[in-house]
Prior knowledge:
Blueprint: E1 3-6, E2 14-17, H1 26-35, E3 42-46, H2 52-59, E4 63-68, H3 71-84, E5 88-92, E6 105-108, H4 123-129, H5 136-144, E7 150-155, E8 165-172, E9 176-182, E10 189-191, H6 195-202
Parallel strand pairs: 3-4, 3-6, 4-5, 6-7, 8-10
Antiparallel strand pairs: 1-2, 7-9, 8-9
Helix pairs in contact: 1-2, 1-6
Amino acid sequence: MELTRETPAPGLTVWQPRRGYRFGGEVYALAAFALRGGPARTAIDLGCGSGVVGLLLARRGVEVRGVERDVRWVAVARRNAEASAVCFTVEHADVRTWSGTPADLVVANPPWFVPTDPVSPDPWRAVSRSMLHGDVADFAAAGLRHAPRVCLVTRRERLGGLPGYVARRVDLPDDVVLVELRDGRGETRLEELDVVAATAWLREA
Length: 205
C-alpha cells in the first residue's frame, strides 16, 4: 500500500494510505473538544488508526497511548509517533478486551457504519469505517473502564445505547456529533465549536 506524508500541525508527521481512509477535519474537532473539556496529563486514543488525534494531543503536552487492533495501522501509527518525536506510544490490542493503565482522558473516532451497510473493498478503509470489530458503544464502554471522561466523534444516530451519560455535546454539520461521556447520570451541556478556529489553534506553531 502506497503511503503519503502529511503534516497535520507543525512538527507532526502522519503517513497514511494514498487510497482508503484518510483523516479529515473531524480529528481537529475531536482533539479541540477533548482538550477544552478539562486538564489532562494522560490520555488514551482507542482505535487510534494513524494516530493523528493522539499526536495532536501529545503536541499539546499530553502523554498519550494509542490502542489499535489492526497490525497495519499499528505499524503506521508507530512510524508516525517516531517521526513526530512526541510522547505517544502504540499498543496492539482489541479495545474491547484491552486492559491498560487508567488515564485522565480517552478519545476515540470509532467506525461509523454498521456491517449491514456497504463495506468498502479497500481493507484499510473497511476496518476504519465499518463496525467489523466493535461498535460505538463498545468503544465508549472500553473508554469508561479506563478514564473518567471519554470524548468521541460519531454520527447522531449512533448515540442510542451508549453507556454512562453525555456530559457535553457539540452538533456538527452532516449529523456528526462530538460527545463527552461520563459514568453515572447527569445533565448534558450543549456547546458550540468553531472547527475552523479549532483547527487553526491546533496548527499553531
